[in-house]
Amino acid sequence: MKAKKLTLMTLALATVSLAACNDNNQMPNSNGGTPTSSASNVYVDFISADANKTLPFFKVNETIDLAEYYNVEYSDGSTDKNFTVSVYEKDKASVLIEGTKVTVKKTGVYDLTLKAGQFDSMITIDCRSEKGIEVINFFKKLQANPTNYTVDLLDISNSGALSYGGETAIHTDNYFIYFNKDNPGAVDENGDANSVILAKLSDGKGYWGNFKADGDVEFQPGDIGSNWGNYYVNMPLSIDGALFTSTFDRLGDETITAGKTVTETLHQTALPRGLNDNYEFGETEIVELGKNDAGEAESATFVFYVYAKANKNTPLLAWGMTLRDIGTSKNDKVDAAAKNPAYLPQPLEVSEMKTAFGLAKAATNYTVTTKIVAADRNGQEVAQPDDTYAYTQFFGTTNALTEVTTVTAEGIESVLKDGDKVLKKIAFFNRGGKAYEVSGALNAQDEMEYTSKELTGDSAVASAEAAVYTTAAFTDAAIDAGLWTKKVAKNDGTYLITGKVGDNDGTTASNLLYKQMMDQMALVQFKDSETNELESYGTYYTSAIKGWDAANTELHALTINSTYEGITVNPTTGEITALANIQCPASSRANLYWNTTYSISAIDTTQTADFSGYTIA
Fold first, then answer.
1. Is the pLDDT confidence value at 570 over 50?
2. How far apart are alpha carbons 88 and 110 in whole angstroms?
C-alpha cells in the first residue's frame, strides 16, 4: 500500500473563511503550531471544514455532530471522519461530548480540540439561547435587504412602557420618508409639514418633498441631481445579529444587548436622529421580537440607552424603536408619485424677491444690520461664558457681533459692536468735493483712534471701495441661482422664502446671493492670531471663515450643511430679512454654528448719518 505522507496543517489554513462568514465566532487555533510528522504509518494531511457546510451557532441543549462539518484528509486524496473531540476540563460540565457529537448545556464560547493521529486542531463553538438565535436570523434578513425597512420611533414612560411616538421612517431603494403613519399630513404650529420625503422621481433625480394635508404628496423645486443616494436613501443598515449577546440574572431572566457601535448605527442610519452634545451613545437592548404565524421573528423592538458625558456611570433611558417590514417596506402614495411625471416640481418663481432686492438696489437711503451669534445646530445661542472661545477663535470678541451700516445720499457708515461695546467704525463720505474713507478702532486704552484716506471717484457711495458694502452688489443672476425650495405668503404682505446656502467654494452659483449679502459687512474679517484684533474689510464671509489652531495652523471652515432658515421679503417696501445657520467645523467646539441674521430696513425713509464728527488727517 502506498504510504501516506504526513503534512500537518492547522485548521486556520483550511477554514480561514469561517470567521468571515459571521455565522458563528469561530477563530483559528492560535496554538496549532507548525506541521509535525507522525511516527506511525498513517499520514494525516489536514483536518478541514466541509466546503458545502458551515458550522452553525449552537442552541442550548442542541446536539450537533461535528463529523457532518469536518473531514480528516490524506495526501492521497482519501478522507474519513475518524477524529476525536475534547474540551477543556473547566468546560466539561457545560459541553457534553459523545464521539464526534457535541451538546452544549449553557450559552457561551468554548474551545474544542479535534484530533486525528498525532495531529490536532482547535475550533471555537458559540452557543446562543433560543432568543439569541432568533435575533441572529432576524438580522440576516436585514443583511439581505439593507436598504428596505421601516422604523417606528417609540416613547418611553416613567414606568418603562413603550408607545408609538408619532414618527416613522421608511427606507426603500427609491425613497426615504419620515412622517407620522397615523397622520401623514400633520403640520406644526407654523403650518409647515411635519413629514419629510426624499425620493428619486421620474426624471431620475432626487427631490425633497412632504405629505400634504389631504394625504397626497408634493415635491419642492430644486433637484439634488442624480447622486441623491448620498442622503438617507440607499444608506444600507447592516448589523450582525451576533453582536447582540445574552446575560441572565439569578432568576434566569434573559437580557439581550449590544454595545454603542450598534446603537450609533441604528440611530444615524435608520432614522437618523442625533444626540445632544452633552450625551453619548450607550448600549441597545432588544425588549421584544414580533413573530409571524410560522414563529419567525419579523420585527424587533429596541430600547436605547445614552450616557451623560459628565456621569458615564449613570445610563439615561432615551427612547425606543421598532424595526419591521424588512424587504417589504413601501408607501403607495410615494411609489405612485415617483413614477408619475406630473409630480415633478416646477422651478420656484422668485419675482417677488427680485422686486424687493431691486427696490433696495435703487435706494440711496437704508440701513443694513447683520448679527452673528455662536449657536448650536438648532440656532440656539451657545451659553456664555461656557464657551467664549466660540467667539474668540474667529472674532476675538466675547459676545455676539452686530454690524449696522447706514447708507444715505451723503455716504456710508458702518459700526461694529461686541455686544453693546463699539469696536470699530468705518465711513465713506463726501466733503469739500472729495470722497474720503475714515476708519476707527479701539486702542489699548479703549479709546477710538481714527485714520483717513482720500478716495477716487465722484462720490463715496459710487466709489469701488464702497460699492461692495451697499445693496448695489446684488445681482439678478445670484437671486435666480438660489436653491429656493418654498415660498409662503404671510398675513402682513411679506413672503417667507427658504432654500439652501450652497457649498461655498467661491464659484457655486447657488451661493452667490448669500456671499453678496455677507460682503456688506465692512468691518468683519476674523482676527489676528496673536493680538485677537479684528482686521478691516471682511469679504467672502461664507467662503472661508478664518481661524488658527493651537499649532498656529490656519483653518478654513467651509460652511457645509448650512441652510437658509428663511428670507422674508416685502415686495412693496423692499425690506428683507435673511436668517441662516452656518456650520463651522473648524471650531474647537463640536457642532458649532454661526446663526446669522441679515436685514435691510428703513428703505427711502428719513434717516441721517452724521459725518461731521469724523476728522480727516
1. yes
2. 9
Query: pLDDT: is 594 or 591 the higher one?
Result: 594
SS3 122: strand
Query: What SS3 state is found at 476?
Result: helix
Residue of 575, 569, 574 lying closest to 488 (CA atoms): 569
Phi-psi region of 77 (alpha: psi -120 to 50; beta: other; left: phi over 0): left
Confidence bin at 612 (pLDDT 50/70/90):
confident
Burial-class residue 587 by CB neighbours within 10 Å (0-12, 13-18, 19+): buried
Q: Is 249 helix (H, G, I), strand (E, B) or coil?
A: coil
Question: Which helix (H) or strand (E) element contains residue 345?
Answer: none
- CA 204 vs. chain centroid, Å, equals 24
Sequence letter at residue 584: C
Q: Is 401 within 8 Å of 392 (Cβ atoms)?
A: no
Do 385 and 419 contact (CB within 8 A), yes or no? no
Q: 112-156, pLDDT tens digit by residue?
A: 999 987 788 889 999 999 999 999 999 999 999 999 999 998 888
DSSP letter at 461 equals T
In the block, cell 454603542 appears at 260
**How far is 565 from 552, CA to CA, in rounded Å?**
33
d(CA 526, CA 168): 43
pLDDT of residue 339: 93
Q: How far apart, in whole angstroms, are the C-alpha atoms of residue 587 and residue 191?
A: 35
Distance CA 282, CA 315 (A): 7
Cell numbers of 403, please? 454690524
Q: What pLDDT is attached to residue 251?
A: 86
CA distance 390 to 594: 9
Three-state SS at 413: strand
Count Cβ neighbours within 10 Å for each residue of 74-87 and write b for 16 or more, e otherwise: beeeeeeeebebeb
CB 154 within 8 A of CB 163: yes
Distance CA 86, CA 67 (A): 14
Residue 14 has a pLDDT of 29
Nearest to 575 by CA among 608, 606, 604: 604
Mean pLDDT across the chain: 76
Higher pLDDT, 258 or 159: 258
**Amino acid present at 465:** E
Say how many residues make up the chain: 617
- At residue 399, the 3 state secondary structure works out as coil
DSSP 435: E
Q: Is 515 exposed, middle or buried (0-12, 13-18, 19+ CB in 10 A)?
A: buried
Q: How far apart are CA 186 and CA 195, in angstroms?
A: 7
Contact present, 256 and 284 (Cβ < 8 Å): no
Strand runs (DSSP E) across 216-332, as ranges? Answer: 217-219, 245-248, 254-258, 279-291, 297-308, 311-324
> Going edge to edge, which strands form the sheet with 108-116?
58-59, 119-128, 108-116, 84-87
Beta strands 593-601; 79-80: pairing state: unpaired
